[in-house]
């Protein structure tokens, strides 16, 4: 896969002095313990160590000097040394970042010159969209779907405020492209109908929740994780900041037995710059199209509607079954719509 370099690549670049081995052997950190990063706040990392084990504890840590150029993000599995007791006023040191199963990225933009990893090791992106008030914007949903496919994550579309409008149109648009869809609404006595279906989709997984202001994401998070305040209480004690004022991602554990799953709330992240995403990355989200493209498209084919001899159009037309043709056309159109969504600004 081709992609632009990001800050995680800096480590592998040779220094000006070349790749001369260091004279001093680095300590092996044999006594390191592993934790999951649940929050990041101004150089302080909150970790959950020994998750679901007898010594489970929240540990506050900073990065060791050798990692100063590496970014540690929510969801990372890291090794720490030093005082990892989790006692008040202790600070451990992160010495290693575990290999990442998935990376959700966003492109550099005017306010930040680096392409950044936003969350590591998440399984699915939950796009929270209100069916009305505010009106759903498919362009924004498409961009989030592209970000998820690029990251190797599944997509769950959570349609809120079903008391105000029907979910049918959005369901018809996104289910054919492999997104799972759940629908919720709140009753007069503030109960959320559909919450069990949401819980079932989140169970045992790490899910990143994304949503624009006013779509009902906070309502949903509070219902899913009633003790969210307590889960991050340790950080609040130390930094004086709560998750509601934090602008970076925070991982909240779903209530239940061991392995119940995590939701990562992204208060400061409303959408993603996608300039780093290639057509091939989007294509990977569509197994059938990907296979046809690999076998039958000419070299260098862009797969767009104006591409000469793109085999995808022929493939969509060639079934004898009208229903199959319809589905193929829908998927091909969706794929091209997503590719186009990459280059549109979030403000459009
Ligand atoms: N009609 C209706 N309103 C809802 C529903 N869920 C939430 N709301 C309302 O929608 C508004 C926004 O909900 P929040 O949960 O604060 O939305 P948010 O996405 O977290 O928005 P920010 O807090 O601005 O980031 C609130 O006034 C809620 O009471 C629903 O299912 N139906």
Observed structural traits:
Small ribosomal subunit biogenesis GTPase RsgA; 15 strands; binds guanosine-5'-triphosphate; 348 residues; globular; Rossmann fold; single chain; OB fold (Dihydrolipoamide Acetyltransferase, E2P); 10 helices; alpha/beta; 6-stranded mixed β-sheet; GTPase activity; rRNA binding; cytoplasm
Description:
With 348 residues, the chain is α/β, with parallel strands linked by helices. The protein has three domains: 30-97, OB fold (Dihydrolipoamide Acetyltransferase, E2P); 103-265, Rossmann fold; 279-342, no CATH class. Helices cover 26% and strands 23% of the residues. It contains ten helices and 15 strands. The chain has helices spanning 138-151, 168-174, 195-202, 217-224, 228-231, 233-239, 279-283, 287-296, 311-317, 322-342, and strands spanning 33-41, 44-49, 57-63, 77-82, 92-97, 103-106, 116-120, 124-130, 154-160, 180-183, 185-186, 192-193, 206-211, 250-253, 262-265. The strands form four sheets. Strands 10-9-8-13-15-14 form a six-stranded mixed sheet. Strands 1-2-3-5-4 form a five-stranded mixed barrel. A two-stranded antiparallel ribbon has the order 6-7. Strand 1 and strand 2 form a beta hairpin. Helix 1 (138-151) crosses helix 10 and helix 9 packs antiparallel against helix 10 (322-342). The longest helix has 21 residues, at 322-342. 39% of the residues are buried. The chain binds guanosine-5'-triphosphate. Residues 160-161, 163-164, 185-186, 211, 213-219 line the site of guanosine-5'-triphosphate. Guanosine-5'-triphosphate (GTP) binds at residues 160-161, 163-164, 185-186, 211, 213-219. One of its GO terms (molecular function) is GTP binding. Residues 1-12 have a biased composition (Basic and acidic residues). Its main location: cytoplasm.
